[in-house]
Amino acid sequence: MKRLFIFIIASLIFSLILEKEGGAIPAFARKYRTSCTTCHVVFPKLNDFGEAFRANGFQIPQDDEIYVKDEPVSLGAEEWKMMWPYSVWPGEFPHLPPIAFLTRFAIKQREKGDVKGDFTFPETFLFLVGGTLGRDISFFGHIGEGRRVYIQFNNLFDNKIPRYALNLRIGLFEPGVVAFSNERRLTVVQNLFSTFNLEFANGNANNFQFDRQSGFEIDGVLFSRFKYLFGLTNGSGDSPDNNSKKDFYYRTAFKLWGMGFDGAGAELEESLKQTENWQDNSITVGHFGYFGANTASDVAGLGRKYNIDFIRLGVDFRINYQDLDLVGAYLWGDDENPANDGFDVGSSLFFCEANYVFFPWLVGALRFEDLNFKGPNSEDLNEIKKFIVSATVSIRANLKVVVDGEFVDGSRIRKGEDNSRDAFLARLDFAF
Which three-class secondary structure state does DSSP give residue 370? Predict the structure, then answer.
């Protein structure tokens, strides 16, 4: 209790000392002269309008041009379009440098371990870049820990097919497999859905995770309410591929009520809405699949390499009602087992998280995760059941404090490891 008390006091002092920092706003907010809360519930978690803005290549759905306050630099006259293919199609780039910075300071206190308390100041310092290169071509970069860099082409062939029906993303990115994002979560603790793998006690086996991947992704919105998505990736995170096969994934989703996936129904006025814009009374249901291959070592330690195939299938949902946002997913997996030829390892994961906006500056989160394995040698895998309780306080639109409590069922951690990983974590993030 004494350590917990010291931890809480340090967290409060930590937030008060830095309350005056971070007065500037990131690149997209500068472009439109609007607050971060136009697109974010609390950064980095997006509201529905922010999701439509991101999916549309960082362009405001319907009428982007009328909201742009920072006029871009033109690369060629408009008349050049009439001369194509005998001229280069005119483009543009942002007038202000499309660069922002995200800094995180963290305090960690664990119940057991060699080091129980740790101040990590700073934990990360990240460069964020993003913008458009003319209509329907955009780019994004997250440089630092967890790097992501991609270019996106939106509304392809919209003179032949409906607008928003076909988009292409190429680069290193988080695949849009499910209705929630680990990169844009509220909590300090990462989603188990995105970070679990089949790693045996000696470190061998399939280390695939739903994480950043190098590849391309095609998606689109039909009739405003139906969304499809599929892609091909290396399946090896941000590392070079370790096999010749490419991973394939897909997702379909349907949304009832609320704002459409394409932003249809958004309340757009001369000034963008900045309050209660997290409310979008709606229900979204989805189905996803991932079919991958990986190279794994055998657990016998003989140095043999196996090419293994694996599958992930599941369903997800999202319910948004007034100040409550509830998301969940169930995943079923099947992996070829390098430890036992002819027998596969099965996995299942249930995930559910509720976010509630008590005030525009105070958001609570409660998450439950339950991971299970079945099959030969599955007793060497970590089965995990845990709860996360979290509170996010926005001191400013671009300055926040997050406090998490992580409670793990230690009875299911494999033998030889710490049987309790309960933890309290606090982090201060500011972007400018």
Answer: strand
